[in-house]
Structure formats: structure tokens, C-alpha cells
Amino acid sequence: EVQLVESGGGLVQPGGSLRLSCAASGFTFRSYWMHWVRQAPGEGLMWVSRINVDGSSTTYADSVKGRFTISRDNAKNTLYLQMNSLIPEDTAVYFCARDPYGFSPPDYWGQGTLVTVSS
Amino acid sequence: EIVLTQSPDFQSVTPKEKVTITCRASQSIGSSLHWYQQKPDQSPKLLIKYASQSISGVPSRFSGSGSGTDFTLTINSLEAEDAATYYCHQTSSSVTFGGGTKVEIK
To answer: Which of A51, A52, A56, B101 has the fewest CB atoms within 10 Å around its CB?
Structure first.
């Protein structure tokens, strides 16, 4: 069974940092592109970042570029999102999702982890 | 950035009624348009990919159509379990989502 389990969310002050993790199981993690997508409370979905199968190619939404870094450890079947210089507008549930081909719709999503940026 | 505009924002529908949700792209995206369903406190579920391709396990009452800039998600004979927010999503140029359409059961 495909499973994606996010962790690392919590309350952080503006300007702070947080690292999210996404533990993958039930599929060959190293063969899939991966995404982070977030959803602010009561709002819609917003794509955050994408990484290719070996981590050599990454892309970001303009709103997080220069502050967030996506990475992966294929040996540990884990995806990461390092978030720096956090602002209140980053408050959201963060989902990881797998993408079979790199420019295809994510077919499995985790349950998400809540990040709250507030003083 | 390609902007996806969904309409309506909200729809209240009677069971067994037909539901039509539209998604318009700010520029042509071919058929790189996909549809998700999200129920409260759940993660999104892929319903339709590449405008009209069905997904295994998704009920046949869900269908998609369109190409270029105009796309439609149709739910034939709505069931109570279909109460959710529906999002369109494009992968033609970078990645963006529509604003969502909330479907409520009357």
C-alpha cells in the first residue's frame, strides 16, 4: 500500500525555520518525482515545489523561492522541505505528493502537516 | 504563470442531479488539465487526468472534457458522498491549481 506520511509541522515565530519530512513506503520512491503542495486554512491548494527522481532538478513557486529548499534522500525513502524566513502567509497544511512522470498530476498524497507561523 | 479560473465557486445540488464545473486557463494548455476531489480534512484525490482520462477506482459518474483553454468536469447523477470541493490543476507550464468549486448536497 502506498503511504506518504508528513511530519515536522508546528508553531514557529515569524523569521524562523522549520524542516518538514515526508516518509514514503509501499512504492519505489527513487522512481518518482515528488511535490509539496500547501493549503492555508479555509483556502485552496497552492503548489510549492517539485523535485526530480535523483534530486538534481528542483522548481519552486515564486512566493517561496529563495526561502524554501526541497530535497530527498532516496536511501531513506524520505522527502524534505526546509523552510526558512517564515512569514505568517506560510501558515498552511503542507502535503507531499508523488508524481509518476514529472509533469503529470500527483496520484497519491499524504495527509498533511500543519505549519503555523505566528508570534 | 498560467491562471486557472473555476466556476461556479459554490453549487448546492440535489441528489441525482447533474453537476457541471468549468475551468478556464489563461492560455492554451492542450490537455494537461486534471481534476481533484477534496473532502473536509482529507487530502486531494485524483479524479480525472489529461482532461478526460479516467482513473482506476473512480466512479464512472465522473467525467471530464475539453482542451486548449476550456475544460469541464461533469458529475452525472450526484450522490451524497460527492459533497466536496473540486479543483482543476494544470501541468503544462509549471504547476497551478484552480480556486476550487464547493459542491454541497441540498
So the answer is: A56
